[in-house]
Design brief:
The chain is an alpha/beta fold. It contains 8 helices and 6 strands, in the order ααββααβαβαββαα.
C-alpha cells in the first residue's frame, strides 16, 4: 500500500514538473532565460542550454524538502536540474551527500547518476531571473507550483529554506495552505519554527557571495542538515489528514 502511494505521488510530481517546464507566465523571465540560453557563457559554448523553467527534483517519499530562490542562469538554466552545474550546487550536494540525503557529492548534469534519498529540492521561482532577483509578482506567479508540491509530497515534515527569499516564499505558502505563523518568524541561519505538520529551518544560501566571504561555511551547512536529520529522527508531526 505504501509503495502504491509513493508511485501515485511520483506520477503527480511528473505531471506537475511537465506543467512547470511549459510555463510562460512571466514575460521578463521568459525573455531572460531564453536570452541566456542563446548567449552562452564561453565555457559552455558546446553545450545545449535547457533555457526553460527548471522543475523540482528528488524523492517522492521525501520527508525533507529544500527550497531555494531560483535556478542560476548558467547552472540550472543550462543543465535543466535544480542546483546543478554551478558552485551553489557543488556546496549543496556535497553537504547532502555527507548528511546521507544524496548518493553522490557531485552534480554536473541531469544524467550524472545523482539520486536524492528522503529529500526533494525545489525553488520559489522556477526560471532564472536577471541578477538573481525575481520580483515579488514573479514569485507569486510561481508559488502555486510550490503549494502543489506541498500537497503532493505528503511525507514532508521538515522544510529547509536556503536564504530569506525562500523563507518568505515558504511562509506565504504555509499561510495559503492554512498554517499561518504569527508573529512572522525572522529569517536567520539555524532559525526554526513549527507550522502545522512542519518544522521550518533557515539557512544562508550556498551562493558564492556567502561561501567566498565565509558567511556560510561547510560546517554551518552541515549543522543545519544535522538539525534537519534530528528533527526527522525525534518525532513525526502528523498532518490533519493522517
Amino acid at each position: 500500500m505504501k509503495m502504491a502511494r509513493v508511485r501515485q505521488r511520483a506520477s503527480c510530481l511528473a505531471d506537475l514538473q511537465a506543467r512547470v517546464v511549459s510555463c510562460r507566465a512571466c514575460p521578463r523571465l521568459v525573455r531572460w532565460r531564453e536570452q541566456v540560453a542563446g548567449d552562452k557563457r564561453a565555457a559552455f559554448q558546446n553545450e545545449e542550454y535547457w533555457g526553460k523553467p527548471v522543475p523540482g527534483f528528488g524523492d517522492a517519499a521525501a520527508r525533507l524538502l529544500i527550497c531555494g530562490l531560483a535556478p542560476a542562469a548558467h547552472g540550472g538554466n543550462r543543465t535543466g536540474r535544480i542546483f546543478t552545474g554551478d558552485r551553489s550546487g557543488d556546496w549543496l550536494y556535497a553537504a547532502l551527500h555527507r548528511a546521507g540525503f544524496a548518493n553522490q557529492a557531485e552534480s554536473s548534469h541531469r544524467g550524472d547518476g545523482l539520486r536524492l534519498q528522503d529529500c526533494y529540492i525545489t525553488a520559489c521561482v522556477h526560471c532564472a531571473p536577471p541578477v538573481n532577483r525575481p520580483t515579488i509578482e514573479e514569485r507569486d506567479n510561481c508559488l502555486p507550483y510550490l503549494r502543489e508540491e506541498f500537497r503532493v509530497l505528503t511525507s514532508v515534515r521538515v522544510i529547509l529554506c536556503l536564504g530569506a527569499f525562500a523563507w518568505n516564499g515558504v511562509l506565504a505558502t504555509l499561510n495559503e495552505l492554512g498554517w499561518p505563523t504569527r508573529p512572522k518568524p525572522v529569517f536567520g541561519h539555524g532559525q526554526r519554527f513549527n507550522a502545522g505538520p512542519y518544522t521550518v529551518i533557515g539557512s544562508y544560501h550556498p551562493s558564492q557571495q556567502n561561501t567566498f566571504t565565509g558567511r556560510l561555511t561547510q560546517k554551518m551547512l552541515d549543522d543545519v542538515l544535522r538539525l534537519a536529520r534530528e528533527q526527522l529522527r525525534n518525532g513525526r508531526r502528523p498532518r490533519p489528514s493522517d
